[in-house]
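2024-03-11 09:14:02 INFO receiving multi-entity request
2024-03-11 09:14:02 INFO entity count = two
2024-03-11 09:14:03 INFO echoing inputs for audit
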Amino acid sequence: MNALEIFFNPDIAARAFPILLRGLGMTLLLGVTAIVFGTLLGLAIALVRLFAPLPFRLLAAGYTDVMRALPVLVVLILIYYALPFAGIVFSSFTAAAVALSLVLGAYSAEVMRAGIQSVPHGQFEAASSLGLGFVRSMQKVVLPQAIRLVIPPQASNCVSIIKDTSLASVVAMSDLLKQATDAQALFANPTPLMVAALIYLAILWPLVRLTGWLEHHLQRAYQR
Amino acid sequence: MEAAVDIRNLDKWFGKLHVLKGINLGVASGERIVVCGPSGSGKSTLIRCINGLEEYQAGSIDVDGMRVQKKSKTITAIRSEVGMVFQHFNLFPHLTVLENCTLAPVYVRGLKPKEAEDLAMHFLAKVKIPEQARKYPGQLSGGQQQRVAIARSLCMRPRIMLFDEPTSALDPEMIKEVLDTMIALATEGMTMLCVTHEMGFARKVADRIVFMDHGEIVEQAPPAEFFTSPASARARQFLDQLLRH
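2024-03-11 09:21:47 INFO inference complete, emitting structure
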């Protein structure tokens, strides 16, 4: 048996493929869920950190520090294995979605804070001197300008969080990696793992390129 | 005459720095006032207090009988009565000229988009750049941007206009077009408070010159009187320096 037949056995690859695709579906669902909730959470935390009264600002700063300091896997294990002792039981998908959202929220908050702070103070002043309230000023004046600067680093955060979805296999969620390790055990062959790695690559490589492209095209300030 | 702005015993500190010291100033409706003085005299801070961009620590400011207080509901009402033009224009760079002008009328006044656009085109024509309506601020010259900023304020149909050194950031050849716009506005009877170093403009349109130094109003007089025989030594010195170059 040569190496090709061991690592890229076409027969096993064909039989494992549908199993892996189901895993891919879960991986993408988890990734998208985490990105949606993590980004919204990040925006909320960034606004609190910039504009809320001092105690809330400190809480938001503490949150982003802690969540960026803790390894993602530790957060996930705490949620899945420790919270049940407090009577809070999550399914493996929910636990993983919550963990990844909490972590992405912290990273997003930092990126968005920087984006909002880069909008010149005169923009806030012009908006409020026209009588626009805080919410309208944010919605119509500040955030649309901040978003250009936020998109490239946030895209990079999203790529990281999609990669981190593979940690969910640790809490027995049948994501792409878990399906691959199961298939590897079933067929007693590493081919499913190799195929899974290629699938990760096929999805993430274009996204990595896209982040680079976005950085090049969006990350410059408006001409004033 | 009814007082458009009534400032009484106003005090403001930036930390330990006492930047406005017991300011008293009344502005009648339709009156045009030029505030001048050396840099750091508190003149910009004073007009920024009028629409609540700066907080003050003592005294009071009333605009059309409404008390200016940062954390009150009247602040929005006051701000929609008081237009402000900034030194650096502060146009919204992500919106077109037209959208810059319609934003507040739509979201603060509740106008329909079509009404707001008609209103915006009316004032853009007034500042003589209706043909730039679809462009973005970054595509315009400084003078054009400042005229858009004036049109944007006028779209709220303010009763009072504040100008905070509107020509200081402009290249010399663009100053005239902005001043002409302001002169046109003055001739229509707009109540105006202008912080500016343009003494030619002051002479031409001001009803009263308010001279400030070190956070105090040192003297106020009609331009003819102020420019020919200033009462205070500080005003004389200031005018000497202005005229020397």
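2024-03-11 09:21:48 INFO post-check: Residues 172-187 of chain B form the longest helix (16 residues).
2024-03-11 09:21:48 INFO post-check: Chain B has a mean pLDDT of 93.
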